[in-house]
Amino acid sequence: MPKYRWLCLYCEHDNPENIEFCAHCGTSATATAYEIEAREFLAKKILSDEHGCSKCSNTAHSIEFSEDPWEYFDSRQSPLLRAMYITVKCKKCQYVQKIEYAVPALRKLYRKLFNQDIKNQWWLKR
Question: Where in this chain does the record put each RanBP2-type domain (predicted)?
Fold first, then answer.
């Protein structure tokens, strides 16, 4: 928790000291580049122009990744078929959405060729 006034990296609103999350958008004071990119992705994909919840129009959301972004994107163990998901939870009404964030090229190719997604969970663990 910061002991100083801080500027949100996503919405650029000024926040008072001793709060851990932005009062306007819910971004952590110690947000990583992955979290900022995920919020930008959500703003384009699912949230309205005001970046509000579809149920209650609240702008503060918490974002969780289905797995560690560094492990998924930057490690040498890149996934062959496993997609990465973002879970978005409204901080006011607790409405939860799960959105597909990153899909490997092999899985996209499989979907295009067979017009369906992979159903066997054994393949998705790799």
Answer: 6-25
Give the list of residues 6+ apart from residue 74 with CB closer than 8 angstroms, or none: none
d(CA 105, CA 89): 28
What is the residue whose two structure tokens read 């996934």?
A: 79
- Burial of 90 per CB tally in 10 Å (0-12, 13-18, 19+): buried
Question: Which position has the token pair 């609240």?
Answer: 58
Write out the two tokens for 119.
């159903």
On whether the CB atoms of residues 34 and 63 are closer than 8 A, the answer is no
pTM: 0.68
User: In this structure, are residues 59 and 24 in contact, taking their beta carbons and an 8 Å threshold?
Assistant: yes
Integer CA distances (angstroms), 20 to 15, 29, 38, 39, 72, in order? 9, 6, 19, 17, 26
